[in-house]
Design brief:
This protein has 221 residues and is an all-alpha fold. 80% of the residues lie in helices and 0% in strands. The protein contains nine helices and no strands. Helix 1 packs antiparallel against helix 2, helix 3 packs antiparallel against helix 4 and helix 5 packs parallel to helix 7.
Length: 221
């Protein structure tokens, strides 16, 4: 008998519980439907956002490939200059186009045109391309015979301690500027620093050559 009573009680609890669910749904049906639609809507928006991001990444990849191809062909196809100029300052890789033009003009010995190309690169964001442009600007300034101006640019880069830019080239240029100023001891110390801290890099190798040259000159009578 007690077993039957417990069974009926469980059935009553179940029926009562289901009744509560039904009443709750009837009372909040509109809100629940709206919430469900909101979840679905957010899912659609998120999926659309992912598709857009993928399309943007694909488009940016094409743009970067176009810029690099134009830059690579510049020595043979000077007409590419106009195409690269049209891409400077536009989108994520506009800075790459500016740097490509600047390095091309520098190779041609056109320092003024190289500086003009770099002028399109703004001070923000301070990313890899920004510091690459500043380092190139310092190199041009040094080539123009202004080691103090070059040092001012390079010293600022070092002070800012950029996370995404390796400083081997910057320190090497600093050493070159000091050497131009006749500060051989300071230049030698910096060349040794680059040699020790960046032994596997291009500038680390060049620094070792400079160290040998300057120390050899010191030993000569």
């Amino acid at each position: 008998m007690k077993g039957k009573e417990r069974h009926h009680l469980k059935e009553d609890e179940f029926i009562h519980g289901m009744h509560g669910v039904v009443v709750f749904f009837q009372k909040w049906r509109t809100q629940l439907v709206m919430a469900g639609l909101l979840v679905v809507g957010l899912g659609v928006v998120f999926a659309g956002f992912q598709v857009i991001r993928a399309q943007q990444a694909k488009s940016q990849s094409r743009t970067l490939g176009e810029i690099l191809a134009l830059r690579a062909d510049l020595p043979k196809v000077p007409e590419n200059v106009a195409k690269l100029e049209a891409l400077t300052g536009k989108g994520t890789f506009g800075r790459v186009a500016s740097l490509g033009l600047a390095t091309y003009w520098l190779e041609q010995g056109q320092t003024d045109k190289a500086q003009t190309a770099l002028s399109s690169i703004k001070d923000s964001p301070r990313d890899f391309y920004y510091y690459q442009a500043k380092n190139l600007e310092a190199e041009i300034t040094l080539l123009k015979g202004d080691p103090d101006g070059a040092l001012a640019i390079l010293n600022k880069i070092v002070e800012e301690k950029p996370k995404d830019y390796v400083l081997d080239a910057v320190l090497f240029r600093q050493a070159e500027a000091l050497e131009k100023k006749g500060k051989t001891a300071e230049a030698l110390a910096l060349y040794k620093k680059v040699q020790a801290e960046y032994p596997q890099s291009y500038f680390g190798y060049d620094a070792s050559l400079k160290v040998n040259k300057l120390e050899g000159a010191r030993k000569r009578p």
